[in-house]
Design goal:
Number of strands: 24
Bound molecules: shikimate-3-phosphate, phosphoenolpyruvate
CATH superfamily of the largest domain: Enolpyruvate transferase domain
Number of domains: 2
CATH architecture of the largest domain: Alpha-beta prism
CATH class of the largest domain: Alpha Beta
Number of helices: 14
Oligomer: single chain
Distance between the termini: 34 Å
Strand order of the largest sheet: 22-23-1-24
Largest sheet: 4 strands, mixed
CATH topology of the largest domain: UDP-n-acetylglucosamine1-carboxyvinyl-transferase, Chain
Strand content: 25-35%
């Protein structure tokens, strides 16, 4: 991207295309011990680069996740006119051209594996008088984009080209003056909400997004941090109504990125299932809209304690102490899904070690992630001797009361969370689970292996 970091950043961006898949397995651990800090939150990292681009002047980001997904967003911001520089590990400077002054990119915005980056940036482009082509890898090309394009068209953007079913590659023509709209999202999705709000930033009026189930609120929080006027009020039993005043003066800001709870989930579950473990996972964001996994594990009997609860960068964070535990199966309500949507693969692994049945309800959104996660989880569990079934949109796992056979081969389908979940499974199972490809782990958790090894895990 900027200056000296450019070659290194680009080299890392293209690892997925250049390396061939490498099967990997994690070996049974005698127990995990020690402290670790997972990398910066992926959702907050994407948004920090995007809002830095929409503010005029220097935004500093500390603790940015330097994963491929986020670096792709950085590349896209640069193509829209931002100057982005790496100052040191996790420390980045973003100088935006500012809201209303973005450049039309000359090249395709290639988002690789990243749903969040591509969808949020569609919102940004949709609210500017520029045209941009969006594309990504084989996984991103399968993901539904109509859910983003539909509201953007209502706001005045035009879809000039798209692959079948509203998929990438997509050529989007944005508008100079987005219409103020009130939009009710068809599914609980922070990506849809954020795309509409980001397009609405350049509208002369008010943009309202209503969701019947609240999704993560990082866009709203960060917009407020950058000086925009955003109001959020309850809507129905579980929903929110978010109102944004258009054309704010966005001021460059300092963003401190807390550790990603979705990444923290892997060492947490590993410590729960590997006998004799006790670890502390430091600085983890405990935003209530991201904490469904912790609530569920607590119901299952997990010994998890939040220590040193504090505020960092506008978010509540805590050090999470985890001790190996006997888990019991539970019923996970559908209403909890938005607060743990990326954690179902690793929850399913925890459930495989629990006593009794865990039923996870209302998982239709898992079918449109980096892979069809519902199928990928069930196939991976079955390959490792775990009794499970999909019933409608629910996943039922019948656990082995502290044991799982393991030894199976897992197809990861370009999905980082499937890869990490089954590597973790190997730490508690009688035999290691083998994942067919671990390259995608770099999209969200580039130091996954080193962090787990630091706690005592072994890989082969
Ligand atoms: O807005 C975000 O940063 C994200 C929202 C979620 O997707 P949906 O909005 O599709 O639920 C989540 O799965 C993704 O990893 C990150
Ligand atoms: C779904 C995920 O990410 P994205 O939608 O950004 O690809 C994820 O990280 O689990």
């Amino acid at each position: 991207m900027g200056n000296g970091a450019a070659a290194g950043d680009r080299a890392r961006l293209h690892t997925d295309a250049e390396h061939s898949p490498s099967p990997l397995s994690a070996l049974r651990a005698s127990g995990l011990n020690g402290r670790c800090r997972p990398p910066g939150d992926k959702s907050v990292s994407h948004r920090s680069l995007i809002l830095g681009t929409l503010a005029v002047g220097e935004t500093r980001v500390e603790g940015l996740l330097e994963g491929d997904d986020v670096l792709r967003t950085g590349e896209a911001c640069r193509k829209l006119g931002a100057r982005i520089e790496r100052l040191g590990p996790g420390s980045w400077s973003v100088r935006g051209p500012g809201l209303g002054s973005l450049l039309e990119p000359r090249e395709t915005l290639d988002f690789g594996n990243a749903g969040t980056g591509s969808r949020l940036m569609m919102g940004v482009v949709g609210g500017h008088p520029i045209k941009a082509r969006f594309d990504g890898d084989a996984s991103l090309r399968k993901r539904p984009m109509r859910r983003i394009l539909d509201p953007l068209v209502l706001q005045g953007a035009r879809v000039l080209e798209q692959a079948e079913g509203g998929r990438c590659p997509i050529l989007l023509q944005g508008t100079a003056e987005p219409l103020p709209i009130e939009y009710k999202t068809p599914v609980a999705s922070a990506q849809i909400k954020s795309a509409v709000l980001l397009a609405g930033l350049n509208s002369p009026g008010r943009t309202v997004v209503i969701e019947s189930e609240a999704s993560r609120d990082h866009t709203e929080k960060m917009l407020i941090h950058f000086g925009a006027r955003v109001a959020s009020e309850p809507y129905g039993e579980h929903g929110r109504r978010v109102t944004l005043e258009g054309r704010p003066e966005l001021r460059p800001s300092l963003v401190r990125v807390p550790a990603d709870p979705s990444s923290a989930a892997f060492p947490i579950v590993a410590a729960l299932i590997a006998e004799g473990s006790e670890i502390v996972v430091e600085g983890v964001m405990t935003n209530p809209l991201r904490c469904g996994l912790l609530a569920t594990l607590a119901e299952m009997g997990a010994r998890i304690a939040l220590e040193n609860v504090r505020e960092e960068g506008g978010e509540e964070v805590a050090d999470i102490r985890v001790t190996a535990s006997r888990l019991t199966g539970v019923d996970v309500p559908a209403a909890r899904a938005p607060s743990m949507i990326d954690e179902y693969p690793i929850l399913a692994v925890a459930a495989a070690f629990a006593e009794g049945e865990t039923r996870m309800r209302g998982l239709s959104e898992l079918r449109v992630k980096e892979s069809d996660r519902l199928e990928a989880i069930a196939a991976g569990l079955k390959a490792n001797g775990v009794d499970c079934e999909i019933v409608g949109d629910d996943l039922i796992v019948r656990g082995g009361a502290g044991r799982a056979k393991g030894g199976g081969n897992v197809e990861t389908h370009l999905d980082h969370r499937i890869a990490m979940s089954f590597l973790v499974m190997g730490l508690g199972a009688d035999a290691p689970a083998v994942v067919d490809d671990d390259r995608m782990i770099a999209t969200s958790f580039p130091n996954f292996r080193a962090l787990m090894e630091g706690l005592g895990a072994r890989f082969a």
